[in-house]
Write a structure and sequence with these properties.
The protein has 293 residues and is α/β, with parallel strands linked by helices. The protein has 2 domains: 144 residues, 3-Layer(aba) Sandwich (Rossmann fold), CATH 3.40.50; 123 residues, Rossmann fold (3-Layer(aba) Sandwich), CATH 3.40.50. The chain is built from 11 helices and 8 strands.
Length: 293
């Protein structure tokens, strides 16, 4: 019995020592100078044409915070594997943060470049939470995705209204294609369409993998007797979904489906991150994180 007690006492002491070491490493026991960094985290894309979106985000963030190093990570393992075969090595958020610990950064603003707070965003939250628990950074904060608050929603509506094609007529539709998710945050898409239609009743928002789907969008267009629609990706990049699911030649693409229904379609292959109006929303979320440092 005495040996067992000594064992647990020794284990308790060892645990206290480990926690003390972590506290010291995380900056609670020393006076390390503040060393800030920004980690931009996107789902990612292997499409060469999509890189213009990421380049624009990178430029805008570096312009806003010229003295703070910027790092990148992709959450999609499949995308990272595809890029690795092409000779481009992109880190996961976990690997990127581990490297930033090695670089002795003390304060890190992790900025999600997702559109909604879906499954990938919540996976990223868990990763950031794990690094908080481990220590190593004095402060690590995760910024909101594009649409998180009502203010974000209003700014997104304004950005959409400003970036739709100038030649579009009021009796013509604008159909935005979002990715969609089985996550509860998919409801943001329907909420966005409601708020857009308060400003312009012929703007519609659908999703590839959620609600509203293309069948409902088609039904709404036909009900309004709309004969022409501009198709625009509501995703940060105009990647595979935009090129194939939205504007592809296959029978199940949105352009094919709507064309067969008698609606002339004009695809606009530009991701939201190609427009400064959307990027400014993400950048403002970084600012919210940095204000806590």
């Amino acid at each position: 019995m005495m040996k067992v007690s000594r064992f647990w006492f020794g284990a308790a002491v060892l645990t206290i020592i480990v926690f003390a070491a972590v506290a010291l490493a995380s900056g609670h026991g020393d006076a390390r100078p503040m060393k800030k960094a920004i980690l931009l985290v996107a789902f990612g894309s292997s499409e060469a044409s999509a890189q213009v979106s990421f380049a624009n985000i990178d430029k805008k963030v570096k312009e806003a915070y010229p003295g703070i190093p910027v790092r990148w990570a992709y959450t999609s393992h499949i995308i990272r594997a595809k890029l690795a075969k092409q000779g481009q090595m992109l880190d996961s958020a976990e690997v990127a943060l581990a490297k930033m610990q090695d670089e002795k950064f003390t304060h890190v603003a992790v900025q999600s470049l997702h559109t909604i707070g879906g499954a990938e965003y919540h996976d990223l939250r868990r990763t950031v939470g794990a690094f908080k628990m481990m220590g190593g950074f004095e402060r690590i904060i995760l910024g909101y995705p594009l649409m998180s608050t009502q203010d974000d929603m209003q700014r997104t509506v304004a950005a959409i209204l400003k970036t739709i094609p100038k030649e579009r007529q009021t009796n013509e539709a604008v159909v935005l294609m979002g990715h969609g998710s089985h996550h509860p945050s998919n409801a943001f898409y329907a909420a966005l369409m409601f708020q857009l239609q308060l400003e312009d009743p012929n703007i519609f928002v659908g999703t590839v993998e959620g609600y509203p789907g293309v069948d409902l969008i088609q039904e709404l267009l036909l009900k309004k007797k709309i004969k022409k629609a501009y198709l625009m990706p509501f995703m940060s990049v105009a990647g595979d979904h935009a090129k194939n699911d939205m504007a592809g030649v296959e029978d199940d693409s949105w352009m094919s489906i709507l064309t067969k229904a008698g609606i002339a379609c004009i695809p606009v292959l530009k991701g939201t991150a190609e427009y400064d109006e959307f990027v400014d929303i993400w950048v403002s979320h970084i600012d919210g994180s940095l204000r806590h440092f």
